[in-house]
Amino acid sequence: IMRLVLISLLIAPLLGIKIGISQSSNDANTTTTSTTTTTETPASTTQAVDISGSGLGSSETVSATTQAPTFPPRKTAKPSSTPTPTLSSTAATPTEATAPPAYEPALYYCACDWQLDVCDINCCCDRDCNKQSLQAFSCWQTPEPQSRLEDFHYTHGLPACHLNDGWLCVFRSNTKPARLQPVNSNFDAAAFNKWPLESFVADAPAAQCMHYSFGQPLQLWQPDQQQLLHLQLPSAFESAHCQLQQAVRHLQPMQSSCLLQNVAAAQTQLWTLLNLTSSHQLLPKPRDLAEQQPDGINIQVCQQLATQFICNETQLELELVQRIELQLLHNYTHILEAKLILSEATQTPHWLHYELIYKPDSMLEPKPSSGALGYQPGAPLLLSKLLPQNESAPQRLDYFEAQSSSQHWLTFCSRSTPVGFGIDLMQRCRLQQALPNLQSALNHSQYCEQLQSNIWRQLLPNNCTQLKQLEQVFVSQLGRPAPTQWLPLQLPASNPGIEAVYDEAHQSLICRNMLLSVSYEFHIAELTLLQGHVPHQPVVQHARLLLGQRHDLEFDNNEQRVELPLTVSVMFYKPQPRIRNSAALQAVNYAMLM
Fold first, then answer.
1. 366 CB contacts (<8 Å, ≥6 apart)?
2. pLDDT for 504
3. What range does the record give for the signal peptide (predicted)?
């Protein structure tokens, strides 16, 4: 009896600590919009987001939880011994009754379909690709995602012991292993990649194809000498010096950087490529052996100067070239146009950069996307801005407009690289501005306000010059944006005005309540989307902006320019269950036992 009493006294408080869910509230930062109450989801539930279930202005994440099985499992009633009646032959079988339809637009998911309304290269499940483009792709079946050890955290109602080493955790699963497939004696390796046998390929007649296939080398044709060869670009292997030539393959972009020994080496590589493009033509499709003189495409040579863009000029205006870009316009099966763009170097180049870009033959530019459904780690975080209200049409985001010219990712401090999903970042930059003539009779409030606007232009996205303009900026919850899955950027409520004070004793100007730093916070999670069909999709659940400390800036009358240090930080938070230390639990156990 004493042992039972001690065990009960020991277990009861520990169970109260482990199972209880703590809710924390932060009253320090209030927001202008409606505050979203976030409840920490227990470890025994699976979250799912309905793509078409939330409104644009709502800041709450649409999620649904499925009840986990009870623990310990309860005994189920035994079935009665009465024989069940046999179903008639006209009744549908369970497989037929529960079989999903062949195609449901609401549950569409393709792992390689990133771009909206554009056929992704070599993506055979993309519904935007027509039959003609699929002929050029090498379609391979995408393997199904296998279960992970972290799935115990969702399916069994308890966390795995390596995540939460406590009293109640899953140490080992007793799930029956999957049945092994029987060994197939008639194995056929035709559907797998194999090393080509050059001796047999040379003797066998080459199969004629009326279009390029994915990964097939592009061909060059020399009309005068009737010579056929492959288009190649310099490439580096185990060395920074480009001593190899890599074939340009259909629909496969490539990049390479070559370390130059001197300026003469850069000129040699440039003129070698220019002589090749001037004497050869690019074939839009593989050469047909029956054609004596195939029709080729002349490669246009363009020069990207500091102030202008020139094409098809016989005289080269560039003295030093730092970047060579080959742009190929295609319709997925044929090459339609080719441009070789030479970028001028501002100083003596030490590297020569090559880049091959494929552009589809479409009038509309593809919208930026960061994943097939959820965000891909490291992909750009997507933003959009509300368009002005129109009486004839509802208010829309500029992301879904065809003629939208604004960028749709988070950048600041005049940097071109966007913020990557899940990557914490801190950026420092400086703002330089001329100081006006300081006189006591003048009103310097306008200068202080203009200075703060220039600071906001560096710290805020979409060239916002006022903090209030961020009320029209929304963050996409998904890597593949949906019209109803956007979150507002929560803003601080208190915003004291800027004051300008002129100190006659020190002959200086003081700008009060100036802000020089901001912080972006994003709460992310992995959810199951599309009614449980697509698990482990990273999404954004909450986004807000925090302001740094306010400063009083004093400028002396002798100064001519102002130089201010600015700071921006981006943090991604992923809520996880609190992991308790097993050593601490043992100490509590010993103390209670004593």
1. 115, 116, 117, 118, 360
2. 79
3. 1-16
